[in-house]
Specification:
Oligomer: heterodimer
Strand content of chain B: 5-15%
Number of strands of chain A: 12
Distance between the termini of chain B: 54 Å
Strand order of the largest sheet of chain B: 1-2
Structural class of chain B: mainly alpha
Shape of chain A: elongated
Radius of gyration of chain A: 27 Å
Strand content of chain A: 15-25%
Shape of chain B: elongated
Largest interface: A-B, 69 and 61 residues
Number of domains of chain B: 1
Number of helices of chain B: 6
Number of helices of chain A: 9
CATH class of one domain in chain A: Alpha Beta
Largest sheet of chain B: 2 strands, antiparallel
Helix content of chain B: 10-25%
């Protein structure tokens, strides 16, 4: 029985049978995995191996910017001009919003969407305009966000637009487990969309409901893409990452006003450098009655509401 | 032979399993047909974002928005005997000079009816309110402030020279200097405006990077009825996320 010749381990028949089964199963595995090839957008190795924003050298950043420009052009069909704007020296941004003048026209909301390449569907908007009953309350639970007025302002109401308050003590930054969001030297809290893991802790931590999550891949019509893009700002986001108002980094770090300021029909929105004593915001903090939202939480916002008249 | 047979059985079962999987994938389209995703806000609505929601329109805005400038009468302000050089574009519309960037053109030109130096006598009712001349009915709404004393044409217009303005102190002002006239009564607002805090600002917060663009009082306010009328609100948010 132990004679290798009378009982060979491998006969022609067993070899053919085994190899047929193996070939068939290999073919079946390949066939069953075939649909994966059509999934499209895989993370490239370059993207996967990209370094943390703060650890990148300018040369490495240049390579990353070029790569993302190609990705955006491939996905949206528009060649963007993507830059990495750095904070300016001696600048700290502050926002002031005049509650006496705001009429709730929501022009800021849509100018922001257009400027910052926000997803049109599912709809992502950074600014929420709250319609508040003008009966002595400041209870946000009594506000209405989806008011559908024929004409604004409506009698008996005032309007309270809310967006990221760019806190000096930001709870969202504290809770991020991977440091994908941080406060820059000019006061803007930014998100690195390539570093965010999408855990949404920051969304839960923000008391102003200022952070938005991309539940699916953003959809933006080609003709509505704003090609003037910044790395930490308005470049298209990925599925599964957080985003938020960044004071239009691509405009404000080039010395211009944010889109919401430019478009406000009543001039309720004011923006500037608080370290400059001659700026509009310095004048407002000096001369107007100023308040901040949810002061008791100790978030120290850079976003002030004020009254005149 | 027992273990060999077991192996063959397992392999055959796996093969059958993968074959079934492959068949199932072949049945389901690999890329599900993307549901049509219309933009939630029509593009036409967005186009309305850029021009300001103001009541009146400055010459620059009118020209840049492609508005009809053919009805403008330059001689409403300029003297006919020393005419300014008026340029026309290829469609015979007036090309507006830079100096007129902040100048407001009303629907009608006063000099169509009034000679510049022909004062009009105003009439008042018993309660002191102004009788709106019949020719102004429907053209001009007089609603400047809450006091009757404000409803007087000659508070601002010079009765002896209708193409210019005058202050209560008697200083003469051109139409494009109206902001200074407004400042005479609205001091605190003028102070805010000078600081850039009242009214729209656009352009550059960093003055070293570029200019700031300011509006004059009459760019946004109708001097005869300065209170803002209501605006049409842009569409609100769709609170439910639409998923495929």
């Amino acid at each position: 029985m132990d004679d290798p010749i009378s009982s060979p381990g491998l006969t022609r028949r067993s070899f053919l049978r085994a190899s047929t089964v193996l070939a068939a199963s290999a073919a079946a595995v390949t066939a069953s995995l075939a649909p994966l090839r059509k999934l499209g957008q895989f993370t490239t190795s370059d993207e996967f191996l990209q370094k943390y924003y703060k650890e990148m050298t300018p040369e490495e950043m240049k390579v990353v910017l070029a790569r993302i420009e190609n990705e955006v052009e491939h996905q949206y069909g528009v060649r963007p001009h993507l830059r990495d704007f750095k904070p300016m020296n001696g600048v700290e941004f502050v926002y002031a919003l005049n509650l006496s003048r705001c009429v709730g026209s929501r022009q800021c909301v849509h100018a922001c969407v257009a400027e910052n390449n926000q997803s049109r569907n599912p709809e992502i908007q950074y600014i929420r305009v709250l319609k508040m009953p003008n009966d002595g309350t400041f209870d946000l639970e009594k506000s209405e966000v989806s008011y559908d007025s024929k004409a604004v302002p409506e009698a008996g109401s005032f309007y309270l637009p809310v967006q990221c308050h760019q806190c000096r003590n930001p709870p969202c930054v504290k809770v991020c487990p991977v440091k994908a969001t941080w406060q820059e030297a000019d006061g803007i809290t930014v998100v690195d969309y390539n570093w965010c893991i999408g855990c949404r802790y920051c969304e839960a931590a923000c008391p102003y409901f200022a952070r938005r999550f991309n539940w699916s891949t953003p959809s933006i019509p080609k003709e509505q893409i704003n090609p003037n893009m910044s790395y930490l700002g308005n470049r298209p986001r990925y599925k599964g990452v957080m985003e938020k108002c960044h004071f239009c980094i691509q405009r404000t770090r080039a010395g211009r006003y944010p889109a919401c300021v430019e478009v406000c029909p009543t001039g309720s929105r004011k923006f500037g450098n608080i370290l400059d004593p001659n700026s509009e915001v310095s004048y407002i903090l000096k001369n107007k009655r100023v308040l901040i939202l949810k002061e008791e939480l100790g978030t120290l916002p850079r976003f002030f509401y004020y009254f005149d008249v | 032979m027992e273990p060999n047979r077991k192996t063959s059985l397992v392999l055959a079962a796996l093969t059958a399993g993968f074959a079934v999987l492959a068949y199932a994938f072949a049945q389901v389209p690999a890329v599900p047909a993307a549901p049509a995703r219309p933009p939630l806000v029509p593009v036409d609505t967005l186009a309305g974002v850029i021009p300001p929601g103001t009541i009146r329109i400055s010459a620059a805005q009118l020209a840049s928005s492609g508005g009809d400038t053919s009805g403008l009468n330059c001689y409403a302000c300029h003297h006919q005997d020393s005419p300014p050089l008026i340029k026309f574009d290829d469609q015979h519309r007036i090309v507006l000079p830079k100096e007129h960037a902040d100048l407001i053109f009303s629907m009608r030109n006063c000099v169509e009816c009034h000679a510049a130096n022909d004062p009009v006598k105003l009439e008042y009712k018993d309660d002191g309110s102004l009788v709106m001349p019949a020719a102004h009915q429907g053209l001009l709404k007089m609603a400047h402030g809450r006091n009757l004393r404000n409803e007087n044409c000659y508070n601002c217009h010079d009765p002896n020279q209708l193409d210019q303005l005058h202050t209560p102190e008697g200083a003469k002002l051109k139409f494009d200097q109206a902001t200074l006239l407004c400042a005479g009564c609205h001091g605190p607002t003028y102070r805010d405006w000078e600081a850039g805090v009242h009214g729209r600002t656009s352009g550059h917060w960093d003055r070293s990077a570029g200019p700031i663009e300011r509006q004059q009082c009459t760019s946004c306010h109708d001097p005869h009825a300065p209170a803002f009328t209501s605006l049409i609100a842009m569409p609100g948010p769709h609170l439910r996320v639409r998923t495929p």
